[in-house]
Amino acid sequence: MTITVVDASPETEIPLLNDAVPGFVDFKCRSSVRSKSGIWKSASFIIGAGVAERFAYYAISLNLVSYLTHKLGQPTAAAAAGLNAWYGTSSLLPILGAFLADSFIGRFRMIIIATVLYISGLGCLTLSATLTSVSSSECNRGVNSECSPNEFELYFFFLSLYLVSLAQGGFTPCIQAFGADQFEDENENESKAKSSFFNWWYCLCVGGILFPLLSITYIQENVSWELGFGIPAFIMCLGLTVFLIGIFTYRFRVNTDQGNPFLRMARVFIRAARNWRAPHIAPPIEQENAQSLSYGDSQYQFLDRALIASDGFLDEKLCSIRDVDDAKGILRLAPIWFACLGYSIVYAQPATLFTKQAATLDLQITPIFRIPAASLQQCFITTSIMFGLPIYDRIFVPFARTITKNPSGISMLKRISFGLFLSLISIIFAALVEAKRLAKAREYGLEDTPGAIIPMSVWWLAPQYLLSAISDVFAMVGLQEFFYNQVPSELKSIGLSMYLSILGIGSLLSSFLVSSIQQLTSSGGCGGWFSDNLNRAHLDYFYWLLAGISAAELFAFLYFTRSYVYRRKRSFY
């Protein structure tokens, strides 16, 4: 929740025993007391709610294709198209949710509203599964001659599913931003803790996926879908309870600026466009230093013209230097955003093509244990992240901090760039291993036997999975922290929605590339790069294409970050 302060009461102005946190109040709009609020005592409740949401989301999304094809009788193509549309919508809705939260509703209220919608959507999914189960029972007993689900059941199911999508669009960017709000940048210890918050947030949310993978999928397919959808609804209720218990410890950011932040920045662009012919005028030095902003720097100087009045002099009545600085900050993020799309395309591969690769190999891990191909992502990537992030946070960061004096160990952009580099290496490994797999298939004459197991151990895939996991430790968490820190304080949810949109757009681009390349390469009766017979396909070509895209975007990222100016912190003192 962002609180706009017009006339602060004496109670909010006087620090309590010099322990007040500047720029924050508690839920009763009193000055937030440092010793009683914020940091980990608050973040633990927020992380608990975030883990509950990730559990609920993956509990329903991981096995939806089975429900659509087996229970609702959808053709595979129709089910895949429907799910792709849902995933795409889910990846873009956080932008809408963040906009509403940062402009009108506030993060705290948006979290409450979104959680209630989440629970309602999951409840409707449970009811939908019950209705489908009843119809199926009547069909089996011969009471109903029409065995396929009717249109109402289909419409009700997808309505429930999109209600969940709408809810997660409001919940996801706001809950993490609200958690990071509990740490004050101006305090050195809390600034260090905020960097750790992003590490532990991702670690625990990834860990929250393990249980639905191991248990909920089994319950859905072997016990009942009603229970499989009902358990996530209960978990979200539990998450809401945990979140509300922590309300007495939360810090709420004070918005001292009047007006909508989007309108203020839009005004900057409009006035700069109107004054595009006006000469640049530098502000008074004491004014620039007092505000500690970047007005007058060498980047995006055309926006400085937004401050010029019709008489040719500076006028901050319509646009302030701070508004100009905020607009510049958003513009600086655009090249970084575009340069990370190649990484997000590679990020989408372990859940799809890596799994298809693994299904053709010898999955025998030990003499008595054979691992399912779909579980490799969790065994290698999820567990590596859960172990890798604590090592990064507790060992690497303190060691790097002694050298760089940076509270985060290394800068956010350096962390991201190393993650992008590891992602490039992982897809190169994937291409090399796939080429070896195809060579083995030709060597043993298995090219036209798609169901055959290639005499090649699944351990060959371990490097690409592990490198993908380590790249996430660096790039994924680095992107979260970067986009949160580099936007104005009123737009923290928007910042995290920009990070989420990278993953969503990357997933859509990956689907577009696959479908387009398959259409181009399957002409003339050929199976194409993504033939159902993987022994005749050429996933290695696709991996090399992704490696080229990743390399180009890594160089673009390094180029843009050379001149990137980090956003300066603003003091409330």
The N- and C-terminal alpha carbons lie at a distance of 22 Å
Give the total of beta strands.
6
Shape: globular
Helical segment count:
18
Tell me, rounded to a whole number, the average pLDDT. Answer: 83
Radius of gyration, CA atoms, in whole angstroms: 26 Å
Provide the low-confidence segments as ranges: 4-17, 285-293
Largest sheet: 4 strands, mixed
The strand order across the widest sheet is 1-4-2-3
Oligomer: single chain
The succession of helices and strands, N to C, reads: EHEEHHHHHHHEHHHHHEEHHHHH
Describe this structure in words.
- The longest helix has 35 residues, at 107-141.
- The protein has a 4-stranded mixed beta sheet with strand order 1-4-2-3.
- The protein is built from 18 helices and 6 strands.
- A hairpin with a 5-residue loop joins strand 2 and strand 3.
- The protein has helices at 10-13, 39-61, 64-71, 76-105, 107-141, 151-180, 188-222, 225-245, 261-274, 285-291, 321-339, 341-347, 353-359, 376-404, 412-443, 462-485, 492-521, 539-562, and strands at 3-4, 20-25, 31-33, 252-255, 364-366, 369-370.
- The chain is mostly helical and 573 residues long.
- Residues 4-17 and 285-293 have low confidence and may be disordered.
Features:
573 residues, mainly alpha, 4-stranded mixed β-sheet, two-stranded antiparallel ribbon
What is the strand and helix layout of this fold?
Blueprint: E1 3-4, H1 10-13, E2 20-25, E3 31-33, H2 39-61, H3 64-71, H4 76-105, H5 107-141, H6 151-180, H7 188-222, H8 225-245, E4 252-255, H9 261-274, H10 285-291, H11 321-339, H12 341-347, H13 353-359, E5 364-366, E6 369-370, H14 376-404, H15 412-443, H16 462-485, H17 492-521, H18 539-562
Parallel strand pairs: 1-4
Antiparallel strand pairs: 2-3, 2-4, 5-6
Helix pairs in contact: 2-6, 2-7, 2-8, 3-4, 4-5, 4-6, 4-17, 5-6, 5-8, 6-17, 7-8, 7-14, 7-16, 9-11, 11-18, 12-17, 12-18, 14-16, 15-16, 15-18, 16-17
